[in-house]
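thread from #wetlab-drylab

HS: before we spend reagent money on co-crystallization trials with flavin mononucleotide, can we at least see a predicted complex? here's what I'd submit
DV: go for it
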Amino acid sequence: MTELIKLMKQRQSCRHYSDKPVEAEKIVSCINAACLAPSACNTQPYHFYVAHAPEAVAVAAEYCKGEKVNKWVSEAKAFVIITQEHAEIPAANSEARKRDFRQYDIGLAIENFCLEATELGLGTCILGVFNEEKLKASFRIPSHKSIALVIAMGYPADEQREKKRKPLEEVITYLR
Ligand SMILES: Cc1cc2nc3c(=O)[nH]c(=O)nc-3n(C[C@H](O)[C@H](O)[C@H](O)COP(=O)(O)O)c2cc1C
């Protein structure tokens, strides 16, 4: 098994965190990893809003709790809110301009972020459920921007789980 696969198996959605605070420089390292991901025409159509100060973390946790899900987020020690930004695809690339690749770009960046966090001993959980309007208003994120996802972070207090995934035969078709 490659070191990369080991790391990918180690990364898991972490929903229990210890009391240990997250070092600010580790969050920057994760954002740097995110920015190393490929993006269509290298546009990097994202911005990272970091909740690290305890007051900001408490506000972010409040608005990442859904009605039924994500009650555990109050255990997280930091949050990174990722907004989708404008992608300036060069006019010369008229074919690429017909499509919106930003969600792919953000997904790739977030996986890099989470893998670097794992390498640094941190746990992460990507959150797709949050109160976008409240988060934007609380953190003065411009209202025209769209929040793509939020990442909850902290030192894990979860046990390592076995990965449950579809069998490869189900997701591969060999073409001829
Ligand atoms: C786009 C996206 C949104 C997600 N939203 C949530 C969420 O709101 N709450 C949560 O607990 N997990 C969330 N997850 C985590 C998934 O449930 C998790 O990645 C999946 O079950 C696989 O488990 P693993 O990450 O431990 O390998 C999300 C994952 C992705 C990629």
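DV: The first strand starts at residue 46 and ends at 51.
HS: ok that's useful, forwarding to the group
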